[in-house]
Amino acid sequence: QVQLVESGGGLVQPGGSLRLSCEARGFQMDEYAIGWFRQAPGNEREGISCISHSDGDTYYADSVKGRFTISRDNAKDTVYLQMDNLKPEDTATYYCAADLSWGTLVRVAKTPTLSRYLEKWGQGTLVVVNS
Questions:
Q1: What are phi and psi of 42, to 5 degrees?
Q2: How confident is the model at residue 9, as a pLDDT?
Q3: Helices in 1-131 by DSSP H: which ranges?
Q4: For the segment 33-52, what is each residue's pLDDT rounded down to a tens digit?
Q5: Distance between CA atoms of 18 and 78, rounded to whole angstroms?
Q6: CA atoms within 13 A on the CB side of 70
Q7: What is the chain's alpha carbon radius of gyration, rounded to the nearest angstrom?
Q8: Closest to 92 in 3D by CA, of 131, 45, 22
């Protein structure tokens, strides 16, 4: 079965860190650019970070720049999102998505209303930042 599986979410105090993982099952992740999105209740989906197939290009939304780091290990078919200095406003369900086109992925990250154009989505992992 072809799917993306997120893990690593949980409850963390403000200022803390978490590392999310996005694992590809049933397909070769190195053929895809991967992005992380998040959605809090009542809010629109937000594209926060993307990484290209070869790890040469990355994208970060201003809201996470300098605090979050995206990386990938194609040998493990996994993309990571290291989240440091977490804030209460980072509370959301985090999703990863895959697309064969880097350009399309970044375009959707900047305009999440276009989410339906991405090829694959995971089910999400919940991150709660609360003291």
A1: 80, -5
A2: 97
A3: 102-110
A4: 999 999 999 999 999 999 99
A5: 16
A6: 25
A7: 13
A8: 45
